[in-house]
Structures are given as structure tokens and as C-alpha cells.
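Hey all, sorry for the wall of text incoming. These are the two entities for the joint prediction.
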Amino acid sequence: MRNVSCLGFQAVGMAAGIKKNRAKDLGLIYSETPAAVAGVFTRNAVQAAPVTISRERVASGMCQAVIVNSGNANCCTGERGLSDAREMARIVAESLKIHEAGVCVSSTGVIGEPLPMDVVRCAVPRAVAGLRPDGIMDFAEAIMTTDRTPKVVEARGLASGKAFHIVGVAKGAGMIRPDMATMLCFVLTDAAVAADLLQEILREVNEETFNCITIDGDTSTNDTVLVLASGRGGAIVHAPEDRPAFRQALLDVMGRLSRMVVTDGEGVTKTVDIHVRGARTRAEARTVADTIGHSCLVKTALFGEDANWGRIIAAAGRSGVPIDPGTIQIDFDDVRMVQNGVGCGKAVEAEATRVLKTPAFTITVDLGMGSADARIVTSDLSLDYVRINADYRS
Amino acid sequence: MRNVSCLGFQAVGMAAGIKKNRAKDLGLIYSETPAAVAGVFTRNAVQAAPVTISRERVASGMCQAVIVNSGNANCCTGERGLSDAREMARIVAESLKIHEAGVCVSSTGVIGEPLPMDVVRCAVPRAVAGLRPDGIMDFAEAIMTTDRTPKVVEARGLASGKAFHIVGVAKGAGMIRPDMATMLCFVLTDAAVAADLLQEILREVNEETFNCITIDGDTSTNDTVLVLASGRGGAIVHAPEDRPAFRQALLDVMGRLSRMVVTDGEGVTKTVDIHVRGARTRAEARTVADTIGHSCLVKTALFGEDANWGRIIAAAGRSGVPIDPGTIQIDFDDVRMVQNGVGCGKAVEAEATRVLKTPAFTITVDLGMGSADARIVTSDLSLDYVRINADYRS
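and here's what came out:
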């Protein structure tokens, strides 16, 4: 993975001095030619300054560079925050000799502190000088906060009879909840895709990937997913018959990245699919899955490797969906724990505990009311989650 | 508090052998004469067998005994659970020589395991033999699960020119969320109050007390609040002018008990009032308060004594209420942390940290949009909460 690259793009990641621990904290992606861009952003009513700027710039459909810092969210920083975000883009544009409106900005880290602009001003020219086609892994490291590992994924496909390549990078380990894009994610492709088509596909794929994961039910003020298409690879995604291949490859990249975000979540020891089936509607299935996936009691039981299905059925019961306990089945992978709302007894507990001791498994809840289903990916709630978040700023 | 009693009532608490650790696990309240009764119950779609039975019996407006066990919730136990709950009431009625329809039943503990009825059959006659006017504190101990302390509160007032007395007992330390009565609570009074008036006052007071607390956002399948009025004290609550004094005394008892439930919550080290004001409507204020009070990130920051107001504003932003970050003020007790959506700087952090180091304080969030307000009581999310809930059944 060290030498991952995507035709038409250069990247860099460096330690600028924004984080106190001298880790990498400034990343830059540069498209050698103006790229088509699509983006989805946090739905939180409180939005960071860089989100406001990037949202405007994505609307134009064109982007040539993305500057990202970690260690500071530049959020709740008022007018100064907006002018700092704009200046960050302007410095990048000047150093790269490109148009300022073609620079998107992202920040991630602590809320409520001003960006150290002297550090940024000093670092950007050095970042530009360090741009390399194989700098994507350094970029992935530079956008990390409490992440334990950088997250980079690739996929390839065919469109218009030519090969295309997609590279995706993400960060995110807390403040994760299914509500629009819940972290930072940057996807590069060498295919040619018009901005409005790219936006349409991104929205669809995002619903099935980053909008289906949860760690702690909190949403960030800085969430951003950007997709940049350089068109340098020769493949063109335009004809209706080319759409499915590109959509599938993007789904593959964003699906794997979103699952990596959960697995690498703060203090996470278990990655668990909650699959609710037998619902009357997809929306009701999703509501039940969300309520189970967010329950502190379910999540602590997962951490404790305790097959405490009573907490799962209690969470389903409080979801607001009018379920009938008498028709519920619950399986841990292929182990049936609950049949018609009643436990299957001590005999199956040992088998269920064997499933719970694995790092990833599926809990299937069949409501027995219809044929709709929904699936989300959740995590356990561990001692380390509390430790990490009690000490985050200190 | 050892000798607390309420005229017309006897109580007992004993170790029957339902819990594995030989702690008290069976409690009985007996009204020497048939008492007026009112009750509110869990709104969870999954309801324990004893809730189904007690709900029927409260509808009659009359009750003469309440039998409660801890260590087993008798929930998701199917037809057997219902017949066990009915048998529990019948044995009590036979031992006390009262009508079976006058016996309410409550259970609390692990979901999904059948009640050990042989233990119950053997213990009930001994419980009846142990009834005493001053047995309320033993009763309070017998209904505890993960509670660290028994919870008993008294209040006195005047109605129809005569003194009345209210004694309330509660248990609950997890699965606590504002949605109907979220634990077990039994209130006794020597006043005479008609059942329908008692029910009306209980509903109002419950909205302001047990429906305004949260620990972990999960609701139980067994939640029950019962109020029994013996009328033995001579005071009569009937005339409109007597209603406020009784309502106020009940509010006092249930308000103090609900706050005790949070303070004694699983792993709780901080009891925090979230007061949202300046909202357009009370419902919107409540939604913002609930979202802040349930946020894992806010609650871990409270545990870490970290004045991380960014998490508070981010939670408010994702609540679904269309807030304007630019008009938000946040105070920790009397320390202003945020003015018009921007932090007040490092200078006030030391003062805020001083507030956070106390065991109880108020976070006031002024949305600056109107004049409505709402208040809930929440707790921190600690390492011990995770430890207790990861190991609950083992």
C-alpha cells in the first residue's frame, strides 16, 4: 500500500506543528488538471468554517486541490474561522499557481480553538514542494486524529471499454453516526465523470456506506466526503451502461472505508452488523437497527462478550416501531438465541458466546411482520472508548 | 431513616434466594385497608409479564398489596411468565387473606430467564409473617439491583385542614431514559385521594420528574410507578384548593427520588442538570436538552472533567432543531464558556474546570431564539458504567 497512486493526482502529508505531538497534521491533494468534484457534508446545524467554504466550491463542480489539517476543527471560531479557512485556500492557490475557487478545505480535531495560521502559512509552501504521485499514504496519515491506522482502499473497473481506477482515503474514529458523511473521506479516480453525475452517484453510495455506520451516535461538525475525477485514465463514465460499473467500484471503496472506520473506532474491539429483517417497511427496519446499534447497554454487552439478548429486544421495543415481541427471532451469526420472543435456553448460550468472542459478526433480528430489511454496522462500547474521550483534550 | 413508616401500611424486605449473592430480593407492601391506586408504566413495546398484570389491576383503582422481586425481570418469558406473575399475586392474596385482584406485581433484574417459582412459593408466607409498619427500609433494599443505596424519601403537607404524609421508595441505576416511568417507584400516602384524581396528579408529576432524567438512554421493560393512598391519616384531597398541596408534596417526593436515581446511576460520578432556554417552543428545548444529555461524547467529557463545550454545541447542532450557532450562549453554573457561538477563551477554562470538579452542577444552553425552556437531569459516562454493564450477567 505504500506506493498507492491515482493517475493525474499528487499528494503529500507532513508534520506542520498543529498537533502538539509532532505527528503528521497537514495533507494536500493536487490534481494536475482541473478535476470534476462531488461532495456530501455534515447535516449538523453547527458547521465548521472549512465545510462552509468547501460546500460553496463543490457547487461549481470543479476542484484542483484539497488542503486538510488535523488537530484543529476550525469550528465555532466565528468570522475569524471563516477568514482563516479562506486564507488557507488562498495560500495553497498561490503556491500551486491555480485558481483560489478550485481549492477545497477540510479540518478535523478539537472544536472551538482558532487555527494557528502562522504555522499553516509557513507549512503550505513546503507541502506544495513535497507533492508526489505516491504521496497518498502520507496524506492518509496526516488526516488522522484518534485513528490507529491510516485508511486507504483501491478498486478498478471498466467504463467506455477502458480501465479506471479509484483510490479512497478516510479518517474517523469517534463522533460517528449515520447522518450524512460522518468523517473525512477523499476519493480520487482517473475516470472522466461529469460533476452532476458524480454527485448523483456519490449521494446514492453514501447512503449505503457512511450513512450505515455508527460508533457513538454523535455527529461531527466537520464531516466531508469529496470525490475528485481527473479523467486522465481515458475511461469515460457517461453512457447509462457505464454507470453500474463505476457505482459498484465506488460502493466497494466507500463500503470498505466505512467498515474500516468502525473497526478502527475509538476503543472498538468488535465490529457488528445489525441486520433487521421481517419489517413492514425499510424505514421501520432502519429505525429498529439504529436503536439497537446505538444502545449503550447492547454495546457494553458486546464489549463484555455477553449474549444478553434481553437488551437487544428491549432496545427494539423502545424504538417507536410497533413491534410484536411474540414474533421476534434473534440470531448471532447462525446461532438462534430467541424464537418467538422467548429465549432458546442456556444450551445455546455457549454457542452464542463463541460467536461473541470473534472480532466481527452479524446479529439478525427478524421482526416477523413483513419483508423489508435494513443493515447497519456498529461497534461495542469499551473501557478504552471512555478513556479516550474523557482525556481527549488533555 | 431506619424507622420510616406511613399510616395504614406495613412492609417487609427479605432474602428469598432469587439473587445468587444472598442479598435481599423479595419485598412486600401491604395496606391494612384497600387503598386507592394510580400507576404509570413503561412505554416500551416489550413489556414484562408483571407489568401486564399490574396495568390491569391499577385500572380498577384499588390495591391492597404490592409484591416485588429483584434479580429477575420475568420478561420475554412467554405464557409461563404471565402465569408465574399471576401465581405470585395469588400466593400473596392467599397468605394475606385478601382479594387476588388487589395485588400488584413488579419484577426487576435479568431479562429472559424464568422466575424460580419454588423459591417464591416458599418465601411469600415468610414475607407476610415479617410485615411491619417500619419495614419500608427493608423493602427499599429488597428491590435494589445495581443500586448502591436504597432510595427512600418523605414529605408532609396539609389538605382539608389535616396533615398528610407521603413516603416514596425507588430503585433504578441503569436502563434509565426519559420515557414514562423508567424504573420502579412505590409511593405511599395516608391521605384519602380518589383513584382517578390520584392518576391525574401522578401523570403530571411523572412528566416533571422521572420523565426528565437519563443515564444511558435505554428504557426498561419493567418500569413502574405506583402510588397507594390509604386515607388513614384523616386528610382528604378532594376540593380544588387541596390539590396543589398534595401535588407539590408528590412532586417533592418523586423529584428527589428521580434525582437520587441519577446520582446513584451505574458508575455515575456527576449529576448534571441540562437547562436549555431561549428556545422557540418547549418541545424544541426538550429535544436539544435530550440530545445533549444522551451524547456519549458529552458524557465522557463530563467524566473526564473536561470543559469541552464543542461537544455540547455539536450535540445541539445534530438535534434536528434548526438552531443558529451564532446566537448560542453556554454557561457551566455561572461561568460563561460560549458567547454567540464562539468560545470565551482559555481564561475561563480554569473556572469552568472548577465547576466540573464538583459532583453536581448545571449546564445552561441559551439558544437565543425565543423564551421557552426545558430541563433534564443527566449523568456522566464512566469507566465503571462500562465495567458494570459488560459484566452484568456474569
